[in-house]
Structure prediction request, 930 residues.
Amino acid sequence: MTPEEFRRHGHAVVDWVADYLDHVERYPVSSKVRPGDVRAQLPARPPSSPEPFEIVLADLDRIVVPALTHWQSPNFFAYFPANVSPPSILGELVSAGLGVNGMLWATSPACTELETHVLDWMVDLLGLPDRFSSASSGGGVIQDSASSATLCAILAARERASGGTTNRTGTTGRLVAYATAQAHSSVEKGLRIAGIGSDNLRLVDVDDSYAMDPAALARALECDVADGRVPFLVVATTGTTSSMALDPIPAIGAIARSHGLWLHVDAAMAGVAAIDPALRWLNVGLELADSYCTNPHKWLGVNFDCDTFFVADREALTGALSILPEYLRTAETGQAIDYRDWQVPLGRRFRALKLWFTLRCTGVADLQAMIRRHLALTEELTAWAREDGRFELLAPARLNLVVLALRAGDDATRELLARANATGRALFTHTVLGGRYGIRICIGGRTTERRHVQAAWSLLSELAG
Amino acid sequence: MTPEEFRRHGHAVVDWVADYLDHVERYPVSSKVRPGDVRAQLPARPPSSPEPFEIVLADLDRIVVPALTHWQSPNFFAYFPANVSPPSILGELVSAGLGVNGMLWATSPACTELETHVLDWMVDLLGLPDRFSSASSGGGVIQDSASSATLCAILAARERASGGTTNRTGTTGRLVAYATAQAHSSVEKGLRIAGIGSDNLRLVDVDDSYAMDPAALARALECDVADGRVPFLVVATTGTTSSMALDPIPAIGAIARSHGLWLHVDAAMAGVAAIDPALRWLNVGLELADSYCTNPHKWLGVNFDCDTFFVADREALTGALSILPEYLRTAETGQAIDYRDWQVPLGRRFRALKLWFTLRCTGVADLQAMIRRHLALTEELTAWAREDGRFELLAPARLNLVVLALRAGDDATRELLARANATGRALFTHTVLGGRYGIRICIGGRTTERRHVQAAWSLLSELAG
Prediction:
């Protein structure tokens, strides 16, 4: 592809993406393809000679688009939002075009410094404690996902608890971590990866709203200490996946402090909502946290991947993750941030660009307005559900998530979800709360308006029989 | 940003990227900025109202570009190539625009199936053993980096060696892994992350070409077994970072088999060269490997991140990494590939698009020709260096890497590297081999031609005094 062809095809792709986003509402939100259907349309081998770009673009329409779940549809209420704003798409395009690797400061200073800078902006925008700003002893870094952020927190906590010996000699087998059964699966996965094991994750009891019971945490800790175990980490969640439960950070933080535990707060979806000053209460207690993460790639218009991960003590993180072979040594080693030491992989893309573009080209006020709109829509939906005697809420509706069930029972709810999704007019997912099957309705699409939420409710309401 | 503005600004960004790539040769390859220089130009806070896109684009030129290392410059000979082809940039753009998350088959079937399909294409294109194809019991997956691929191999090997108990109970402290001191730092980092520890990595002796000595591996194994340790993994490298050394896979594989070790082959940069049938010898012995990785994002024109990771037994991998909370259960769970079980993070971008675009729009023949061109240029450079009595090669020149030193000694070589890089006319990096400081010259730029290599050699030759 010549430079001139790149310009021409590039304009065509921009228009293709613009058309896709303009029309995404028309598509069934989920696809009806069956496993193997896509592959059956693809040739067994790639071509020896270049194919015309137009054919590739046509294949996107013919093969790929019909086999997508349309996460950008305003009728997407499943899992979590992944709302992609136009500026973020352009930021990703610039990043791909520059093709720089930000593993070290020296391998592209702007890549590192812009990242540090926009992460400091996020501390300010979300009202996070100063200890997470790079002007303190802490700082922020972009991870691909909250899963990776949680793993990094586990590794930093593990290293601190072992006095810096685990990286040399391996885990001791005595470390114990704490979270609730409502915490994200990445907590358990991270403990497995770190060689600590699922058996050493204590599932702390929750209260009626599925939030961690601090008294239960204290009891579990005392029990383990009495058994000669080494508690090292508690993961609290601000907005659980199943029900948006909010673990009480101040009480958990106080217990963590008194036992010398690392406190990681996972606010993957909900945390960015604090960009609205009215929601700053989401951050209460964060000054007690050693690490924190939230995902602009979920609810703040930045395309995946952009998890913002903050630590209060950057040396605890780099102490766990740094490794310096001769071929990575530069004149600035130790004088500037080398983000390779803040993450699992070595290489890294220029991901700060898409966050920078989004914040500058959208503006803070519009992002705040979007969050407020989603919250208002969720309140409205909650009211409709409450007024309908056939439905009940399985958990308190919080922020942008409602979990509904039919009073007629799990089978009826399961069937309602399947029938609603089969229409393609909306997409919801499910969870199980307190043994009950529930439909999760998560409102966070960039283009989701009142009429979409109304239509989604009408769909459920009509099919509920 | 309205849809119409997105089209307009999108065209402008495509042109901006095209201009950048057209002009990248003109820039000093590395920047002269000092730590803090970039941040000093950025405002302390993001704007409340949207800024005009033109200002953001101007800031790219004003603040970002002058503070980049230009990895796409034809005069970039540092670290490893990161050659980005125009089609791959457009693939990344489509991926950002679609904004789908491929964590499960059900969350976008095309995302998963296209990935499986192009990974099977790679098995065919590179002449890899059938056991890595999805038609066998194995298969491929795109990881962000070879570091992550190595970590996944470590975890799968760890789990197999422990009979599937480590994920539950943690590591035993008796596991031992093997690699040479020339293996990538991610091997040691991965062992640290996995809770095994650096002390349990045996650095096996190398021969004169810095390749693993299989007899030394056998001796180390016997020693550890006699000590009651549990050898579980050997990582062999096809093309080490420092000198492109090639560990002898057949002999290592035979030893690994006889001891029941997992063999992971890290061919991050060199492996893709096997797309040229004349270089298929790079794959000798791979039929003995349990896992293998190579990076189209290094030398095959795909923008970072695109590491292709293959396993012979996909159940060993998913057995180590799978975790299934209720909210991720779908009708197709267990019936189709859910790639979240093949990697550390949960979420994933639609990365197969950029590999698909690159293979289709470039064509296999052109990719083969590019590899052959780089090899020929490296041979030529090697000949020039051999003819110049002031220089010596610190290791056999292999594929696209030459490591040079001045006979005048390390200080002279170090000074030469610093002076050459300071001109901005080329960028090289360094390593230490056998206690000697050497200049690494790695030739793999998509637009690097004979004149660039000639100029690089002239630069070194003139400054060598």
In short: The two ends of chain B are 56 Å apart (CA to CA). Chain B touches chain A through 151 residues (CB under 8 Å).
